[in-house]
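User: Okay, second chain of the day. Same drill as before: sequence in, structure tokens out.
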Amino acid sequence: MLVIVVHQIPQLSTDQVAAFVELAREGTIRAAATNLYVTEQGLRNRLIALERQLDVELYRKVRGIRNATPLTTQGQQFLPHAIAFLDQAAELSSVFSADGRSQEVSIVASQYLATYVLIRGMGQFHRAHPDVRVRISVRTEHEVETMMIEQPEIQIGFAAPYESSPALNYEHLFSMSWSVVTPNKHRLAKKKQVRLQDLVDEPLIVYESGSTGRQHVIEAFARQSIRPRIEMEATTTDLLVRMVEANLGIAVVPLLPDGSVTRGRKVAVKPLGKQIRAIDSDILTRKNENLSPGATAFIRFIRENNFASN
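Assistant: Same drill. Structure tokens below.
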């Protein structure tokens, strides 16, 4: 006698799984709901339905440590399968399309690289590769590395890491030298050459603690036995420049050669040459992982067009 055992398959919808993946990507219900163009309660309803179908808790309803992942252990285990589920659903939907090759490339980048390098290239890349959709998230340098390690749906990272992780490959993209940025009428704006010693008594605005940029600057002062007068901190280069423009102090920042970072700002820029070690920006990928054709094409396009100097 033939006995057929039928296992009940949970009725999962792409909307439910997409809500879960978006929560994992963004970290908050609000951000995930905004990206999916649904209300926060609508997103919660999808997540609740998904958890009921799987009979497991996928995410923490109350967040603990700031910046910690909202996913439970079971949620982290389910995430790569959820991403694969959506990828397969996309493939099914494109079976009868013109070429069936539509794909998404998820990248994460530091604010500096996203604003001043990648945005320049994304529009041109899309016109050259209309079948590839690029999705970009902006994080701090440390968070870029963390997301590359912990979130398998992120394929490429762009950052200037201070220390390398053994789990990642680091491919050099370009280097930037440092400059001091001052208000237009500042005494340093009139000097032909500025030394780090000239900054000793100046109110200095620096990057936040733990950032690659701050460590480069502090190391340079330490090598010359100089103790800078740090007055304020900021997260992004654009914010540092705006604070200088508001006469809150001076800042030492890495700048692209085309002047795009300070263009239109009422500030003066004085190069510091080799007094501070150049900051290297890298392309991050996971070791022993084969990139999708779209991700490979995006990396090649960014490298070949050198958007950091155009």
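Residues 73-93 form the longest helix (21 residues).

User: Thanks, on to the next one.
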